[in-house]
Each structure stands twice: as structure tokens, then as C-alpha cells.
From TrEMBL:
Domain of life of the native organism: Bacteria
Protein name listed in UniProt: Beta-glucosidase
InterPro entries xrefs: Cellulose_deg_GH3, Fn3-like, GH, Glyco_hydro_3_C, Glyco_hydro_3_C_sf, Glyco_hydro_3_N, Glyco_hydro_3_N_sf, Ig-like_fold
Keyword line: Glycosidase, Hydrolase, Signal
Similarity comment: family membership: Belongs to the glycosyl hydrolase 3 family.
E.C. number(s) listed in UniProt: 3.2.1.21
Domain called Fibronectin type III-like: residue spans: 709-778
Leader sequence segment: 1-22
PANTHER family: BETA-GLUCOSIDASE (PTHR42715:SF10)
Length: 795
């Protein structure tokens, strides 16, 4: 055994070096304590060799312990490798990660509990110290991948923070999306990160769910299009890694966005057809149109099978049908939950074996279950070839990223927020604001006395997965600057609170004492008596819509009502008989019927990013024309859920004494100007099932202001073998038009736009008639239509 081990350690050529599993497990301490192996001439160190050969060479040299280390990460245990000032200590690291490590989780963090993290310079020094230890002090010198959160900008100190993804989706702007995520990619790479756990392409179909803000809305096509641009922003257009790029992670696969009861990680009771056509659609589209390197499995179960144990979904569909060749990473602690929550594994080892067999390549964020794979391999319970496959997928990213040639980050090239980034976030914020109602009050003009009131008027509103950006402009700060420039006056009063102050990261959420809010409302009415216009900043906050990651840390709600005394505040201010503008912030749709009834203008804002106040002021005063469109329908109440627009023909018969339709439908959003759509014109009115054509429409700005409009293409298969939604988004284009200007927008129509899953679960285009609809929203009254006839046999 010793002779066998010695030969393995000294070899500089590709060795199989397997021996018996018992031989490897007998000597972990000896391997860990052995001096750095001289492998300078090994194939895996030769950058001129094919990556497949380098991977095979390296795996052939590794012990089982070293292999398992590559499919685990370190997070909480980072602090066991640190000094009191959070600096990395290689001596301590030898006890914590003696065999190396696959990922280091969130190196930009200090404590991991929401406090400001490391500066850019500190993060680079930290990751370089870790890499130096791994390269110089471990047996094979394998560097680590560093991963960070970047949901709406790198979640790190002084990084740029724009609006939550639900707001990015509201822009319907592909180019703007790519520019935003390119900023995050450059900043992340400059601080030593190689992987970001973004974008979220879950399709959100239940607004009670607290994670709606993290999604790109309710439509799979929109999520696919905007999600693809986020991936390209991070990774670039080609397979080569360039400076300023990081590997993206699609998440969460799949069915996460319509949990039972709106409760986070609740079971997804959906058919295979719905799973494929709705929830898997963005994943499939992005896999087929990019080289996305990572996909994260979801916490939930789909029809009784947890996603982290779903080999059909991760191996057969993702890798077999779609040809995906990247890594599948676990969600945080989700492998443990196969045992502790789902109860489909009786131990951590059983959970680990089932997860890796099902296609989960690496356990994040910490080493809990996967360390037991050493024993599972040595006992024969798990084939070492399955382990090798997972290890190879993680090593491939390290080779592709060039970490073996240069694992270090240049401390002179750290990027933080810049004025150019501010301008971009400000622009994105204006394009995210969705104007729901305007009775002629807006845009504001002249020397006005503005009354600003509401729980979100002077609050930092970032949403989840945020760190501490360089600055944040509240609505109050932004309007103060703008009103002063016009010669007007701003009066601010709080009015009411959503909750008592707290943190997205902390568990406790405290309700507001009703008597205290009554006093605030009374004061607000008195304070605003001289206002010309009242602006109400209402909605939710970071505590009332967030990821419910534990029973003690909740964020889902059974109601969409405005919390606290906000409706009482609206009623009291309405008695002043002054024009009111409502700004609705928060992570998901809310019941805002009272606000709409009593206000002249209302915006759905969600979260707008670090330039919130400037974006709001730009729009209210007409320096920017609102162009946001709803990425998710606004239901009238929780009792009207589901409210998504692409429902089946039998789904919305009606309610007794109430309207069954959404309050505002997907794709809706007004402007300060008006637009007119011509009747759509088909390239050909009849074609075969394998044919292609186009549909064109003229969009004219018929108003007096320049602005953006989003031309939206919807398609309906009139009669089909399997029931189809009443309409489905199949294209959109955002165009800028000056007053009186007309532009022709043309959409392609072919297999991609017309196909669906038939009775045999094959994607086909069936003969028949298809209604082709183009307009400004998904509402029937906002669409012009024509008919395309498809002839021949289904293809």
C-alpha cells in the first residue's frame, strides 16, 4: 500500500492511481500532511494541453478525500481560518481545508449577518491569501472558485446596486439589462470572484410568495429574454473567459415560483406539461442560447420529488435532452434538507449519495452532507466514476477561468461604484417605474409646494441580497434637490410605518403600534395643509416581502393588503382634497385599489436601486418619460390569485359580485405621451408547419412628448389538440419615438413562436389558424390582431 501511494505521489504523468478505496482511506492524514507535490511538468499544469486531458490527469492523481473537497464549499468555517480582524490564517486553514476546497462562499462578507462586508481592497487581499495557501500548501495546488451573490448588483461593500430583478424585467429592455449585469461582472471579477449566483429565472405565479422581487415576473418568455441578457452581461458572447467576466448561475430549477399556499419552498403541484412549457422554459432557452456555466437546483419538490434528488430533471432533461455541460450547484443547505425537511433520506450520507447521483455536482454553501461521500465511495455504496464526473465539472471551470495559470487578483484593479454607474442605475430606475394611472396631473411643473408623506418616503429601499452600496438616494433626498431647483418647497412628514425598523437579514419583524400611527397620521394631515400636491410613498419593505429561509425567518403573506395604517393614511389625506400621487414600493404586487380610487396618479415602483430618489424626481417632473411595463399582473386581492395573463380558456369564468380579471394585466404601463399601433401585417398569411414568416406593425407617437413604447407580440393557437393559453408573449421590442414619429417593428414567426407540447409530449407546430396579436399590453383592448393559417402535417 505504501509503495502504491508513493508511486502515485511521485508520478508526473497521467496515472490511474486508483488502487482500492480502502488503501486511500487508510492514509488521509499522511496525504494531507505530505509536502507540496512537485507537479510542474504534469499535464494538468500545461496550459497548451486540451482541458479534457488536464482534467483526466488531475483526477487521476487525486485521493478520494481530495476529490470530495472539490465538490464542497466553505462558508461558516471561513471564520475558523481567520484572525480576529477577519484576515486569512494559513496555519488555521491546514486544519479546516487540508485537502483543498471547491468553492469559497461569499469572500466579500465579514460576518455573514448583514453588516457591511470587506472593502474591495480587503476582499482581494483575502482571496489572494486563500489562493496562495491552496496553491503553495496543499498537495496538488488546486485553486478555489470564489462565488458571490449578485442579484441586483454585486452584494458587496461600495458596489453598484440597482433595482431588484422584478424592476429590471419591468424595463422590457434587453440592452439596458446587459449593461447593468456587465457592471456587476466587472466589479465581481475585480474583487476576486469567479462565479455569481445569478440570475433568478423562476417564473413567479403567486404574488403571496416573498421572493417575487428576485424574479423576472410571471412570463416564461420575458424571463428567458431578460435572463439571457444577464448571463451575457456576466459571461460575454463567447466561451472564452475575458477580464471582467464571471460565470453566471441560473436558478432555481424548477417550479419554485408557484409554491403551495405561496409559502417559500412549498410543493409545486404542476404537470410535466406545465413544468416544461412554463417553469423550465427560461432554463432551456438560456442553455440553448448561451454557455451558462452553472445551474442551481431549487428547494421545492415537484410532484413528490425534491429537485435536489430529481435525476430525471437534472440528468435526463437538463443534460440529456438539452445537452447542458456545465455544473449543477446545490442551493444553500438543500442537500441537508433531503433528510431534515423532505424526509426522502434517512441520513446525511443517504442525502449526499442521492443528490450526487441525481446530478448535484457541488454542495453549497458549507460542507455538511458531501464529506460523507468519502465513506460512501470507500464502502462501494457510490461509484467513484460518479464522483469523478462531478469533480470534473468543477475542475473544468477552474481550467477555463485560467486559475491554474494565475489564481490571483490584481489589487490595483479593484472596481467600486462610479458616476457612470450612478447614471446607468438612475436611467434604469426611470425605465422601471410603471405608470398605472394619470388623470392629467403629471408631469409636475412650476414652483409647487410638494407634500411628501409615507413610510417609504425617507427609507433606504434595496430589497434582499444587498450589501452596503456607496450611497442611497431616498425619495426625500431626490425630491428635495429637484424641488429646490424649481424654486418650489418640500414638506416631509412620515405619516405611517409599514413595520418597525429592522433588517432583511434579521429574523424579527415587529408590527407598528396602532396608536402611534394614529398620531403620525394626525400630524401628517396638519403638516400638509399648505401643500399643492401630495406624494405618498407607500407599499411594503424589506421585511414584509423576503425569502422565508426558516420557520423563524418568514417573508410570505396570506394577504396583499397594505400593512399597518397605510389605508387610513390615504383616507385621511384624501379629506384634504388635494391632488395625490401614489408611489408603491416593495417586492411584490399589493392590493392598492384604495390608493387608485383616491389618487390622480399612481406608479408601481417595486425597488429602483441606489438612485431611487433621483429616478423618481426625473419621472415626476417629466425629465424622463415613464416606460415601465408590468412584468407580473396586479391582482385585485389575494382572493383573485392566480392572476397571470396566460391562463387557459376555462380558467376565468367569473366570480359572484366581483370581477375575475386582474386589476392591471401583464405588460401594462402608461406614458406621458400616447402611441398608436397599426393593424399587424403578415409577410405571408398562409404557410406550412415548417415555414417562417414575419409580422410587422407601425408604432406612432401621437402625443407631444418623446418616449419609449414596448411593442408586444402575443400568439394564440385557435384550435389545438391540447388546450393552450388564451395568449402567450412571443416577442417584444422597446422603441424610442419623438412626437409624430413612426417606426416599423417586425417580429419573426416560425417554429420557436408557434410550437407547443402535443399529446405525445413532443414539441410540434400543428396546422390550423393562429391569432397574431401586437400592441402595448396583454389586455385585449390594447392589441391589434390578424390571422395566420398553417397548413400540412404537424411538425
Amino acid at each position: 500500500m505504501l509503495r502504491h501511494l508513493t508511486l502515485c505521489l511521485l508520478s508526473v504523468l497521467l496515472l490511474t492511481c486508483g488502487g482500492s478505496e480502502a488503501d486511500v482511506s487508510d492514509t488521509p492524514a499522511a496525504v494531507a500532511d505530505s509536502p507540496r507535490l512537485n507537479t510542474e511538468t504534469a499535464i494538468y499544469h500545461d496550459a497548451t494541453q486540451p482541458i479534457d486531458d488536464r482534467i483526466a490527469d488531475l483526477i487521476g492523481r487525486m485521493t478520494v478525500e481530495e476529490k470530495v473537497a472539490q465538490i464542497t464549499a466553505v462558508w461558516a468555517d471561513k471564520h475558523k481560518m481567520e484572525t480576529e480582524d477577519y484576515s486569512f490564517d494559513p496555519v488555521k486553514a491546514r486544519e479546516v481545508i487540508p485537502f483543498g476546497i471547491g468553492h469559497v462562499t461569499r469572500p466579500s462578507e465579514r460576518s455573514g449577518s448583514g453588516e457591511p462586508g470587506r472593502t474591495g481592497a480587503e476582499a482581494v487581499a483575502y482571496v489572494n491569501a486563500i489562493q496562495r495557501y491552496l496553491v503553495e500548501d496543499t498537495r496538488l495546488g488546486i485553486p478555489a472558485l470564489m462565488h458571490e451573490e449578485s442579484l441586483h448588483g454585486l452584494a458587496a461593500r461600495d458596489a453598484t446596486s440597482w433595482g431588484q430583478p422584478i424592476s429590471v424585467a419591468a424595463t422590457f429592455n434587453r440592452r439596458l439589462t446587459r449593461r447593468l449585469y456587465s457592471v456587476a461582472g466587472r466589479q465581481a471579477a475585480s474583487r476576486g470572484a469567479h462565479v455569481v449566483l445569478t440570475p433568478v429565472v423562476d417564473v413567479a405565479r403567486d404574488p403571496r410568495w416573498g421572493r417575487v422581487e428576485e424574479t423576472l415576473g410571471e412570463d416564461p418568455y420575458l424571463a428567458a429574454q431578460i435572463g439571457l441578457q444577464a448571463v451575457l452581461g456576466f459571461q460575454g458572447d463567447n466561451d472564452q473567459w475575458d477580464e471582467g467576466e464571471v460565470f453566471a448561475t441560473l436558478k432555481h430549477m424548477a417550479g419554485h415560483g408557484e409554491p403551495e399556499g405561496g409559502n417559500n419552498i412549498g410543493p409545486a403541484h404542476i404537470s410535466e406539461r406545465t413544468l416544461r412549457e412554463v417553469f423550465l422554459f427560461p432554463f432551456r432557452y438560456i442553455v440553448e442560447n448561451s454557455n451558462v456555466r452553472n445551474i442551481m437546483a431549487s428547494y421545492n419538490e415537484v410532484n413528490g420529488v425534491p429537485s435536489h434528488a430529481n435525476g430525471w430533471m437534472l440528468n435526463d432533461v437538463l443534460r440529456g435532452e438539452w445537452g447542458y455541460r456545465g455544473a449543477v450547484v446545490s442551493d444553500y443547505f438543500a442537500i441537508r434538507e433531503l433528510n431534515s425537511r423532505h424526509a426522502v433520506a434517512s441520513s446525511l450520507k443517504e442525502a449526499a449519495v442521492r443528490a450526487i447521483r441525481s446530478g448535484i455536482d457541488i454542495e453549497l454553501p458549507d460542507r455538511e452532507a458531501y464529506p460523507t461521500l468519502v465513506e460512501a465511495v470507500n464502502s462501494g455504496e457510490l461509484s467513484e466514476s460518479i464522483l469523478d464526473t462531478a469533480v470534473g465539472r468543477i475542475l473544468r471551470q477552474k481550467f477555463e477561468r485560467g486559475l491554474f495559470e494565475n489564481p490571483y487578483t490584481d489589487p490595483e484593479k479593484v472596481l467600486s461604484n462610479t458616476p457612470e454607474d450612478d447614471a446607468l442605475v438612475r436611467e434604469a430606475g426611470t425605465e422601471s417605474m410603471i405608470l398605472l394611472k394619470n388623470d392629467g396631473l403629471l408631469p409636475l411643473d412650476g414652483e409647487l409646494t410638494i407634500g411628501l408623506v409615507g413610510p417609504n418616503a425617507d427609507k433606504v429601499l434595496l430589497g434582499g441580497y444587498s450589501d452596503q452600496p456607496q450611497h442611497f438616494i431616498t425619495v426625500r433626498k431626490g425630491l428635495e434637490a429637484h424641488v429646490a431647483a424649481t424654486g418650489g418647497r418640500l414638506i416631509y412628514t412620515e405619516g405611517a410605518r409599514v413595520t418597525e425598523p429592522g433588517s432583511w437579514y434579521r429574523d424579527t419583524v415587529s408590527a407598528v403600534a396602532a396608536e402611534q400611527d394614529r398620531k403620525r397620521i394626525t400630524k401628517a394631515v396638519a403638516d400638509l395643509a399648505d401643500a399643492d400636491v401630495i406624494i405618498l410613498a407607500l407599499g411594503g419593505n424589506e421585511l414584509t416581502s423576503r425569502e422565508a429561509w426558516a420557520e423563524g425567518h418568514l417573508g410570505d403573506r396570506p394577504s396583499l393588503e397594505l400593512l399597518g395604517a397605510q389605508n387610513d393614511l390615504i383616507d385621511a389625506l384624501a379629506e384634504l382634497d388635494k391632488p395625490m400621487v401614489g408611489l408603491v414600493f416593495g417586492g411584490r404586487p399589493l392590493d392598492i385599489r384604495n390608493l387608485l380610487d383616491k389618487s390622480e396618479a399612481v406608479f408601481q415602483c417595486f425597488y429602483l436601486g441606489q438612485e431611487t430618489g433621483h429616478s423618481v424626481a426625473d419621472v415626476l417632473y417629466g425629465e424622463a418619460n415613464p416606460s415601465g411595463k408590468l412584468p407580473i399582473s396586479l391582482p385585485r386581492s389575494a382572493g383573485h390569485i392566480p392572476a397571470f395573463y396566460n391562463y387557459k380558456p376555462t380558467a376565468r369564468r367569473g366570480y359572484l359580485f366581483d370581477n375575475v380579471n386582474a386589476l392591471y394585466s401583464f405588460g401594462y404601463g402608461l406614458s406621458y405621451t400616447t402611441f398608436e399601433f397599426s393593424e399587424p401585417r403578415l409577410g405571408v398569411e398562409q404557410m406550412s408547419t415548417t415555414g417562417n414568416t414575419t409580422v410587422s406593425v407601425e408604432v406612432t407617437n401621437t402625443g407631444t412628448r418623446s418616449g419609449y413604447e414596448v411593442a408586444q407580440l402575443y400568439i394564440r393557437d385557435d384550435f389545438s389538440t391540447v388546450t393552450r393559453p388564451v395568449k402567450e408573449l412571443r416577442g417584444f421590442e422597446k422603441v424610442f419615438l419623438d412626437p409624430g414619429q413612426t417606426k416599423v417593428v417586425t417580429f419573426e414567426i416560425g417554429f420557436e413562436q408557434l410550437n407547443y407540447l402535443n399529446e405525445e409530449m413532443r414539441y410540434v407546430v400543428e396546422p390550423g389558424t393562429f391569432r397574431i396579436m401586437v400592441g402595448s399590453s396583454s389586455r385585449d383592448e390594447d392589441l391589434q390582431s390578424t390571422v395566420l393559417t398553417i397548413t400540412g402535417q404537424a411538425k
